[in-house]
Structures are given as C-alpha cells and as structure tokens.
Design a protein that fits this description.
By secondary structure, the protein is α+β, with helices and mostly antiparallel strands. It has helices at 44-49, 52-65, 116-125; strands at residues 18-22, 27-31, 38-40, 90-94, 99-103, 110-112. The protein is 24% helix and 21% strand.
C-alpha cells in the first residue's frame, strides 16, 4: 500500500480533495468537501473499515467542517476517473448490492460517494 501524498481531485465532482490523517493507521485519506466523497489508496479502506473509531474520525471531520446539506449531489452511475492513474474506474455492487463502489484496476484505489462507507459498514456489522 502506498499512501498518495499529492493533492488529488475528486472523481465525482473534480474538486480538490482534503487529506485527513488517521493517526491509528498512519495514513491520509482523501475527502471531498464539495460532495463528501472519499478516495482510498490501495488497502486503506479495509484498514479504516476494520476499526469503527477510524470511521468515527472521518465522520467527525466531515461534521466539523461541512453540513450534510452543503454537499452537492452527484450521480454515482457516471464513469469515474481515478485521480491517481487517470484511467476509468470499474463499478462494483457491494454491501448486498446497495452500494456502487468505484475501483481502479491499476492502482487499487477505491472511491465511495457520500454515506457509502457507512452503508458498507452497516452490512458488515449487521
């Protein structure tokens, strides 16, 4: 797993993404302040998803700086371009077919639209 340190642009809305440092994992994840999307470098999502505290850290960050109503709506059916490889990402249904997750075959990156991490987490926990 390589943690991308460059500023990247959101695959959903092309806004520059903010880095959120997760101290327990010593990684940065990229969060869009415009649409609430999250980009994970290879392996990061699984580290975050395995520890509920990590998910809470991300949610606190979003709640601290952005109201849910401030996020723009995006169409999760649109083809997303990987912000690292700049290639089209594949769409995969996950979480009991309730989430359309975008994945990059080249770098292993994953993009989730706003609230999709919680949906995935709830199907794992239930």
């Amino acid at each position: 797993m390589t943690d991308n340190k460059n500023v990247i642009h959101c695959p959903a809305c092309n806004n520059a993404m903010n880095k959120i440092f997760i101290p327990s994992e010593s990684i940065d994840i990229d969060v869009c302040s415009n649409c609430g999307g999250i980009f994970f470098d290879k392996g990061e999502m699984f580290k975050i998803n395995n520890d509920l505290k990590n998910i809470q850290d991300v949610k606190k960050y979003l709640e601290k700086y952005y109201m849910d109503s401030d996020f723009i709506l995006t169409d999760d059916t649109q083809t997303r371009i990987c912000p690292v490889c700049h290639k089209a990402m594949d769409k995969n249904l996950v979480a009991n077919d309730t989430v359309l997750m975008d994945t990059c075959k080249l770098c292993g990156g994953i993009f989730l639209d706003r609230n999709e991490l919680e949906k995935i987490r709830s199907t794992v926990v239930d």
